[in-house]
């Protein structure tokens, strides 16, 4: 097979991601556009095509549209969009679609996130590799055969509809005045924040927005648009304190994730945000007559999350790490909300898809309806102490896990293997999870305990075994 026809370097489990001009090119994108239509049976239907602010996105949107229309699908170009705008449009219009983004990856990358109609994700388990295989066939032939009736290309701007929809989900008009610093990282939140939280398209809210890096620039001149890395939050933390702001929000490049900073410049953990939003969504669902609303959480979020869900009258459901698992389980359970430690937040009223902006609005509402600072509000949802994710490079991952298991099973712990291995103390003072990386020789430790000393001792003990 011609090496140009091997797309395995860019097709991942959940999306397509590669280096522009090397593993993702105009030629390959055109073939993927054709294969997307054929694999999902979309000839004669309208599909949605948009992209983020990366320099290559407009050209890739055009190439995808060319391949798709050649195989008989109509294309609606959405132009510049955040990833959750694609999910919104796919749900609203019940149309399949693609957005060109590489999320938080550096400037030389781009990629594709695809959905079926209704914002149902296209992953390796739901057809992504079928798209890859057919695209490779088209590249092998060097020709995409046209259908008798090729599709047409139109344009649709969904930003105002998206903004109105989110404001209908969370009413911020009665909030106390809040000063909000937003770090868009030169990503798509620079477009969506003024539309949703500002007065660019809709009436002003009682929010004073202090913008950081709102200029759309896919070369990321200020810092990488990856708030998961602590160094990328430093500008926001300093700005929150300098401006005397009530809260800081940081979005990743395609704005589907949101991280929160309190008025002291300290991060509020995604587990605390998950619990905070879960309480609000349970209350809303119960007020609408739902007896026991379901909340999804992955197994390395704080145990404070399921404890709160039970107290509030909901039913917590634990799942593996990974958004495809959460989205599938959300739909299966009819869950009202789901949260991950990586700051992905999923909403039933958003077609079970993740949206950083809607999560941010829930946090603003929770803060704005009471008088205390965010640091106090956040503490209510963070009763435990955690390590975060600690990576260890390990030559023999199974042997390392076996050493830990042999040591801790003598302590009468509960062990489960839903995702990696989770150990829970019988007295309830701590738990930890060890998960192997799918792509690298790493073991990832996440641990939580009732106090800092217990956590410190536990982590030292586990890591000594892992790194022996």
UniProtKB/TrEMBL annotation:
Residues covered by the Alpha-D-phosphohexomutase alpha/beta/alpha domain: 10-126, 160-265, 273-382
Family per similarity comment: Belongs to the phosphohexose mutase family.
Protein name: Phosphomannomutase/phosphoglucomutase
Record-annotated Alpha-D-phosphohexomutase C-terminal domain positions: 389-464
Record-linked Pfam families: PGM_PMM_I, PGM_PMM_II, PGM_PMM_III, PGM_PMM_IV
Lineage: Bacteria, Bacillati, Actinomycetota, Actinomycetes, Micrococcales
Keywords for this protein: Isomerase, Magnesium, Metal-binding, Phosphoprotein
Phosphoprotein found in the keyword field: yes
């Amino acid at each position: 097979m011609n090496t140009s026809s091997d797309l395995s370097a860019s097709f991942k489990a959940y999306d397509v991601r590669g280096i522009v001009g090397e593993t993702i090119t105009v030629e390959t994108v055109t073939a993927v556009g054709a294969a997307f239509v054929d694999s999902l049976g979309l000839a004669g239907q309208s599909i949605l095509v948009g992209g983020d602010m990366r320099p290559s996105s407009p050209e890739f949107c055009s190439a995808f549209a060319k391949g798709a229309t050649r195989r008989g699908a109509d294309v609606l170009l959405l132009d510049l969009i955040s990833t959750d705008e694609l999910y919104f449009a796919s749900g609203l219009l019940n149309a399949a679609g693609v957005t060109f983004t590489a999320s938080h990856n550096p400037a030389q990358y781009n990629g594709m996130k695809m959905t079926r109609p209704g914002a149902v994700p296209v992953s390796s388990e739901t057809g992504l590799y079928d798209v890859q295989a057919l695209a490779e066939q088209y590249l092998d032939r060097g020709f995409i055969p046209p259908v008798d009736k090729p599709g047409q290309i139109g344009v649709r701007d969904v930003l105002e509809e998206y903004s109105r929809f989110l404001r209908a989900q969370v009413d911020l008009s009665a909030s106390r005045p809040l000063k909000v610093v937003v770090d868009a990282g030169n990503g798509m939140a620079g477009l969506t924040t003024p539309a949703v939280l500002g007065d660019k398209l809709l009436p002003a809210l009682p929010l004073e927005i202090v913008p950081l890096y709102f200029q759309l620039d896919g070369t990321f001149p200020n810092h990488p648009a990856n708030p998961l890395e602590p160094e990328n939050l430093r500008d926001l933390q300093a700005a929150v304190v300098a401006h005397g702001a009530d809260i800081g929000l940081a979005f990743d490049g395609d704005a589907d994730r949101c991280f929160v900073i309190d008025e002291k410049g300290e991060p509020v953990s995604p587990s605390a945000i998950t619990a905070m939003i879960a309480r609000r969504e349970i209350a809303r669902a119960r007020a609408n007559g739902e007896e026991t609303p379901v909340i999804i959480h992955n197994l390395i979020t704080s145990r404070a999350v399921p404890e709160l869900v039970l107290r509030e009258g909901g039913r917590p459901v634990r799942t593996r790490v990974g958004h495809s698992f959460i989205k599938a389980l959300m739909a299966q359970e009819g869950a009202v909300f789901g949260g991950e430690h990586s700051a992905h937040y999923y909403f039933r009223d958003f077609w079970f898809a993740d949206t950083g902006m809607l999560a941010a609005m829930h946090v603003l509402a929770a803060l704005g309806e009471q008088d205390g600072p965010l640091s106090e509000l956040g503490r209510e949802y963070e009763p435990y102490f955690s390590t975060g994710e600690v990576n260890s490079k390990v030559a023999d991952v199974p042997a390392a896990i076996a050493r830990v298991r042999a040591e801790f099973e003598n302590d009468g712990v509960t062990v489960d293997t839903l995702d990696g291995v989770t150990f829970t103390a019988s007295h309830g003072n701590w738990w930890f999870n060890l998960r192997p990386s799918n792509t690298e020789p790493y073991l990832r430790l996440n641990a939580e305990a009732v106090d800092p000393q217990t956590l410190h001792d536990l982590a030292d003990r586990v890591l000594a075994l892992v790194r022996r």
